UniProtKB/TrEMBL annotation:
ATP binds at R220, D221, E222, Q229, E479, G531, L532, D533, R534. It holds the Pfam family tRNA-synt_2. Gene3D superfamilies: Bira Bifunctional Protein, Domain 2 (3.30.930.10), GAD-like domain (3.30.1360.30), Nucleic acid-binding proteins (2.40.50.140). Its EC number is 6.1.1.12. This is Aspartate--tRNA ligase. Residues 198-201 are annotated as: Aspartate. SUPFAM superfamilies: Class II aaRS and biotin synthetases, GAD domain-like, Nucleic acid-binding proteins. It catalyses: tRNA(Asp) + L-aspartate + ATP = L-aspartyl-tRNA(Asp) + AMP + diphosphate. It is found in: Cytoplasm. One of its GO terms (molecular function) is nucleic acid binding. L-aspartate binds at E174, R220, H445, R486.
Amino acid sequence: MYRSHNCGELRASHTNTEITLAGWVQGVRDKGFMVYVDLRDRYGITQLYFDEEQTDKKVLETAQKLGREFVIQVKGKVQERASKNPNIPTGDIEVLVSDLTILNKAKLPPFTIEDKTDGGEDIRMKYRYLDIRRNPVKNSLIFRHKVTQEVRNYLSNASFIEVETPYLIKSTPEGARDFVVPSRMNEGQFYALPQSPQTFKQLLMVGGMDKYFQIVKCFRDEDLRADRQPEFTQIDCEMAFIEQEDILNTFEGLTRHLLKEINGVEVDKFPRMLYDDAMRLYGNDKPDIRFGMQFGELNQVAQHKDFGVFNNAELVVGIAVPGGNSYTRKEIDKLISWVKRPQVGALGMVYCRYNDDGSFKSSVDKFYDQDDLAKWAEVTGAKPGDLICVLSGDTNKVRAQLSALRMELAERLGLRKPNEFAPLWVIDFPLLEWDEDTERYHAMHHPFTSPKPGQIELLKTDPGAVKANAYDLVLNGNEIGGGSIRIHDKETQALMFDYLGFTEDEAKAQFGFLMDAFQYGAPPHGGLAFGLDRLVAILGGQETIRDYIAFPKNNAGRDVMIDAPAPIDDEQLTELSLKLNLKS
Ligand code: ASP
């Protein structure tokens, strides 16, 4: 038996008990005639005590030679400490050691295994197994486990069944690039790793499973923005014989359950916002509604004067920054530079101070008098003491820019509180999205999403206006889940592929199996998937998902610990019938 207790377990009530512990040496304090060792494992830290009088000489000497992160086993007796440490649960006791075995020595770790480490991100990732010994990472992984356990509990209690679907499949249409795997047995042919189990979960509905879920890895070969991973985890779900309302209620229930069990937070019924309203009021389909600062569209009140910039703009839109009138001229100039950064891309920003005495002072006083500016204040909901920031230009662009500014200002003003939770559904997404590059419509969600009833005809005349039975679950400015009611008949699905520019042959080659299945009694069905990594990070009050992933990849998609991806040798290439054609 390696241990009778763990390092977080012993209390004053164990005094005089003979115990055996095993773990890592967190630190040694050698006072010559007495030695203290902090012994650590996943459960906590226990102080070990050795002294000249009570400890065997050899044992004491061994203790004096212990290095950080040595793996040891000790036997001894629990005793109350002379000076207690109220900061740790085992702080009342220590173990008077009688036997000490070094189970394994350790090289000096490249960074300190402390909550606040001296190791930078790169080095911590290279030695991630050491990083995982640190409380912040360890606790994040434990936290993630709690979340997944609650997910499994809730869904299992609601009659969902977890079914595994294959990883070696064929392209799935989530709009990203596939990771592919060459097949040795089928020369020149490749599997694609799933971007999601989308088609399989629909086939499970045809198979009569009725309610499916899976906590599953998905793979998307995308350019990695700061906080994305090429492999990530979804809570993937699908239900048969349901309408949109059933889905929203079920997964609102799951989210509420998680907020309650994990965060101890009770949330009211989730608001529902039309996609069009989200874009109009927040410039964004995943609005953070923990704070106000809604957009006010100013075309009507700002386009009748001689200010060409506004007159020529498709949209003039502003927000009121609470207390922003206190900003100095220099601070406002900095804000203007901020919106002009290439990442945001605004051409400029007009502003208007709302003074405490009710008067206004704007950067365009030449064109607008006090009455005009009062209307700006009315439309943006500004109050005395606020600053109105106004952007103008092409509708889609200007909304994105103002949305970025809104989020930035809220961050600076401390309005994005990590322990406040504001979930909502965004519903009625457009079915299609115009893609500038390919000059074609693409499915905004994916091609299996059904249009709103009665709108299919619109596809011919005004495709961009067709709304879908698609919804996103948004939490604190992040999309944490999204899904749709699916098409479940072959004709509509074929029509959809046709509108999306697939030839009949292409559609058949890629998704023939699904269309075939639809001919054998496909029930009405729909579902959604949560992004688990992000969900866990938000529930944990963090913005970054990396700490919640045991072995994450870096921004270049590399695992720096195992050094992957890596070349394969010629023999393996030959076996796979592959020849490299490298650019460099
Ligand atoms: N497969 C979709 C996704 O990964 C989710 C869904 O429609 O259920 O976004």
